[in-house]
Every structure is written in structure tokens, then in C-alpha cells.
Design a protein that fits this description.
The chain is globular. It has 6 helices and 5 strands; from the N terminus they run αβαβααβαβαβ. It has helices spanning about 5-10, 25-35, 55-70, 75-85, 105-125, 140-145, and strands spanning about 15, 45-50, 90-95, 130-135, 155-165. The relative contact order is 0.23. It has one domain: NADH Oxidase, CATH 3.40.109. Strands 1, 2, 3, 4 and 5 form a 5-stranded antiparallel β-sheet that branches. With about 190 residues, the chain is of the alpha+beta class. Bound molecules: flavin mononucleotide. Flavin mononucleotide binds next to strand 4.
Length: about 190
């Protein structure tokens, strides 16, 4: 499939099941991430692949973080967080390990990591898997970052869920171009 068809047809897939991508396929997906555009060749991207029982450990980390954030959190809320990483066989934590104060601003370092995430989504699609980019409060939580080996200055840009698509893949709807793009012809 050519790249334009692949991009126009890409959809997020919230329902993902096993089997997920193999170790070799995950490597391919990650290598595609490493071709993200990158101002200053800072290579700010870091990726943690979480699969198998490690997903349970990630869920427990989310629960621990939520208990710190909100000691009154309900059992239901904690249970939902605990189960979140189980929504796919593979979760890739995609992080911008930022360099504040560098001539390449942090926003560009985060933008590069976001481009890496999109490369991964397209690579997963091309390999016949589904992908879903998620964040939520846990992506911004200092305890989560610290326990995953990052600093508060670093940004979790995505929890990228990968797996086999459960059911029919949604058809992509491309928005009307006129609402978002115009020719600028000068002042
Ligand atoms: C930075 C970022 C964070 C996102 N976080 C979530 C999330 O936590 N939960 C969610 O349901 N969708 C989230 N989304 C949106 C989905 O990944 C997806 O893009 C959206 O549902 C639109 O579907 P489509 O990609 O098929 O157009 C996020 C997207 C981005 C770019």
C-alpha cells in the first residue's frame, strides 16, 4: 500500500486483543519511531515496551499514583486504572526525555516524539495490527514518570496500545479540507 493511502486510511482502534505484534514486529515499529524528524538530532525519544505481566505491574503503578494524587479515590476508579494497561497485549510508553534550556525548545522535542508515535501507528497498521494513542492523567503524573525511570521534566507523550483489532476496523473519515487549510496570499 502506498504511503498516502495508508495515512488516509489510518484509524485508531480502541478494541485490541492478543496476539499482539511479535518481538521482531515490535522492533520494526520502534525502528520506524526512530525515523521521526528531530531538530538538532537530539533524539529525545524513549520507549518502554510493556507486555505480558508487566502490564499488571503498570496497572498497580497507576493505582499507587492515583492513591497519592487522591487518597479518597473510589475502589471503582482504582480498579479501572488497574485494568487500563490490559486493554491491549502491548503498551508502549512513549516519552520525550526533554532537554530544557536547549536551543531546540522543549515543544519541538515533544513534537518530534509525537511524530515518532504517529510513525509507530502507521507501522502497526502496515503490519496488520491496530493502534490506539492514549494519555490521561497518568501521563502527567510525576510518580508514574519517576517509577518508569524518568524525571518530572520529561513528557509521557503516549501510552501507545498495540494489538490485533477486535471486530471490524472503522472506516477513516477525512475532514473537509476547507475548514482547516487555506491559501495565504500575503498581507
Ligand atoms: C496526544 C493525544 C492523546 C490522546 N489521548 C487519548 C486518550 O487518553 N483516550 C482516548 O480515548 N483517545 C485519546 N486520543 C485520541 C485517539 O488516539 C484518536 O486519535 C481519536 O480517537 C481519533 O481517532 P482517529 O485517530 O481514528 O481519527 C489521544 C490523541 C492524541 C494525539
Amino acid at each position: 500500500m502506498d504511503v498516502i493511502t495508508a495515512i488516509l486510511g489510518r484509524v485508531s482502534c480502541p478494541k485490541l486483543v492478543a496476539p499482539g505484534p511479535s518481538a521482531g514486529e515490535i522492533d520494526t515499529i520502534l525502528r520506524c519511531a526512530l525515523r521521526a524528524p528531530d531538530h538538532g538530532l537530539l533524539r529525545p525519544w524513549r520507549f518502554l515496551v510493556v507486555e505480558g505481566e508487566a502490564r499488571q505491574a503498570l496497572g498497580e503503578l497507576f493505582v499507587e499514583a492515583e492513591r497519592i494524587r487522591n487518597p479518597q479515590a473510589s475502589a471503582e476508579a482504582l480498579d479501572k486504572l488497574r485494568r487500563n494497561p490490559l486493554r491491549a497485549p502491548v503498551v508502549v510508553v512513549c516519552v520525550a526525555a526533554t532537554v530544557p534550556g536547549h536551543k531546540v525548545p522543549v515543544i519541538e522535542q515533544v513534537a518530534s516524539t509525537a511524530a515518532a508515535v504517529q510513525n509507530m501507528q502507521l507501522a502497526a497498521d502496515a503490519l496488520g495490527y491496530g493502534a490506539m494513542w492514549r494519555t490521561g492523567p497518568m501521563a502527567f503524573d510525576a510518580h508514574v514518570k519517576a517509577c518508569l525511570g524518568f524525571e518530572a521534566k520529561d513528557e509521557i507523550v503516549a501510552f501507545l496500545y498495540l494489538g490485533r483489532v477486535d471486530g471490524e476496523r472503522r472506516r477513516a473519515e477525512v475532514p473537509e479540507l476547507e475548514a482547516y487549510a487555506h491559501r495565504w496570499t500575503g498581507r
